[in-house]
What does this fold into?
Amino acid sequence: MLVDECHRTQEKDLGAFLQATLPDARYFGFTGTPIKKADKDTYARFSEPGETYLDKYGIDDAVRDGATVPILYEGRKTEWSIDETEIDIQHPA
It folds into this structure.
């Protein structure tokens, strides 16, 4: 069973219904927002017992495989000029 947005759909009723309907299915969950709360635990639902991660396939793996193009960026520092005398002056609107 491939499940997109698993952190939203597999907790509580829908997840319980699917598991009851397909008790022998193997679940693969996709999420960009893993959740770990008292009543929801994406890690417990989709990780192997004792593992503290959901996915070991990261951006570097995807770039290496050619599935993703490298993200190239150039940081630029902005030179700020703050007039300390103007900071607290109230100007009429």
Notes: Residues 1-93 form one domain. The CA atoms of residues 43 and 54 lie 6 Å apart.
